[in-house]
Amino acid sequence: MLAFIAARVPAPAQETADRDPGFLTLTFALARIVRREAAVAFARHCALMEAAGGPNPM
Fold it and tell me: Which superkingdom (predicted)?
């Protein structure tokens, strides 16, 4: 389907520098890493609190 649409376009699309998909990919990858590391850090914190005999936040 994409080949059919591309064959009908009279000229190649001009992409500007601010529409770089690499930038978006990097941004989402970093957000995913930060979210995952935050979840791991919170789980580690809960485990330490429980091991110390404190209240379990979960």
Answer: Bacteria
Using one digit for the tens of pLDDT, what is the confidence trace for 11-24? 666 666 666 667 78
Interatomic CA distance for residues 53 and 43, integer angstroms: 15
C-alpha angle 31-36-38 in degrees, rounded to nearest 5:
95
What gap in Å lies between CA 7 and CA 20, rounded to an integer?
23
DSSP code of 10? S
Q: Dihedral of CA 21/23/26/27: which sign?
A: negative
Neighbours of 50 (CB within 10 A): 13
CB atoms within 10 A of CB 54: 10
Farthest CA pair distance, the chain = 70
